Amino acid sequence: MQHVLCEYAERETLTATQAVKVVQDVFFNTSNRLYKLGLPLLPIQELDELSIDPEDSSQRWADNLTHLRKLLRKDPSIQFLRLQWLDYTRPDSYKTMANITHSTPRARVLPIKRAVRMFSERKFVGITKAVLGLLQPDTAAPGWGASGEYNAYPCFEGLRPGGRKAYATVQIEFQEHNGDEVPICPRTLLRRQVEKAESQGIEFIVGFEVEIVFMSREKVEGGFQYGSIPVNEGGHAWSTAHALRPDYIMDLLEEIVQKLENAGIQIEQFHAESSPGQYEFILPPLPPLLSVDTLIAAREIISLVAANAGLRATLFPKPAPAHAGTGAHVHISLTKSSEKWQSFYAGILKHLKAIAAFTYSQDTSYERVVDGVWAGSTYICWGTQNREAPLRRIKGSHFEIKCMDGLANPYLALSAIIGAGMQGVNDKQPLTMKDCHQDPSSISAKEREEIGIKDRFPKGIEQALENLEADKQLWEILGPAGDTYCRVKRAEKEMLDGMEEGERRNWLIERY
């Protein structure tokens, strides 16, 4: 069959598409009917619609379509394409456990046939310009109205199968209708910071740790509350084998790992964390943009599996007040010009009080910012293999940034971190702060002074936002995204401050 069809194609008796169609009919369709498999197959002609116009000057768009074509040829069962993005407050409001709630981006779903036709004509989904000013209940922060529209530009380099069967997922960037970039788009902001660094010969590899707490949801009058933690039989602690014994929790964890692998995400390891019901999945190191895209996809899959098991997977920073909190630690290495690591991290330390507005993005985040619990300390410092320092040096230019939780928008947080670090490189800033080998809260004020520890993290989001506004250098690095962020976060804070403590806790766990 192979030799005959190849010969016919070479003689132009059959086109390549017609030859493939013969194989499809003889093997796939015949088997489908004979064995009643009911398997879908994306028609070849639809894939061919994704041809690249040779006169198209946009290499980035051509590369995008290449990624999409490859995935559809590899997995013809895909029937839906999910376009996702993160706004400045993160997830949408969902009401049922059947939906994926915490850390879920906003999304549009396209039938794959419609997506293929649209993108072959270089057409895009239109999204209101208010999108980056919306709060969780879909009310707009001051300064945003109903006028204007962006294009949702799919970034297919991060395209991957989704957590649901027959779905693929891709992150988007916002563009004006004429193709101009939108400076306040979170993913665009990070891409710009990465491109600036690359233009100076510096590249990064980034990896995330996903800490998650599995909780049950209980019905109460007028709604639900989150209180019970399912894995709380006694003995649950960091890396304990006891927490990996119950079949129902191991079935959950193993299904998560399998679904992550199906989506092309090969985790490094998983283990029990300190708080009851808390587990950690360590994602692979990747270039910054792909790493964040992968983080979002992984969180979505974890949430989906938990929801299908009747559980709540939450990134809420302090779900069990008496136990350790939940972070979202970031590992960063300089893969080119790594000898400049001291200036890079000196820049981050210089601006960390302001960066905290992105990494600790809500008042509840600061409930986790305490000393003595390996959460990254209240003091701004660094230390080699010091898990009580917010910046833990591991080896060479490889640092773990511990001062971040799951409520943060990782595109914005990483933009601020890389932007501040690159400013330190550009300024050739020396790392004058000494290596801190102890818990900074356990030593004297004089000893902290000798090390060079001067500052502490803010105590709430308002103070963090004030630090951001006062940091003119970081403000300039971020451009209009800084002002947008401050306005949205203050509107969000006002909304949350109007809730009772228990209501606010439930409300945030429902969404994160």
From TrEMBL:
The keyword Magnesium applies. Its cofactor is Mg(2+). The keyword Magnesium applies. It comes from the Eukaryota. Pfam families: Gln-synt_C. Residues 186-512 form the GS catalytic domain. Transmembrane segments: none annotated. InterPro entries: Gln_synth/guanido_kin_cat_dom, Gln_synth_cat_dom, Gln_synth_gly_rich_site. Keywords: Ligase, Magnesium. One of its GO terms (molecular function) is glutamine synthetase activity. PANTHER family: GAMMA-GLUTAMYLPUTRESCINE SYNTHETASE, TYPE-1 GLUTAMINE SYNTHETASE 1. Belongs to the glutamine synthetase family. This is GS catalytic domain-containing protein.
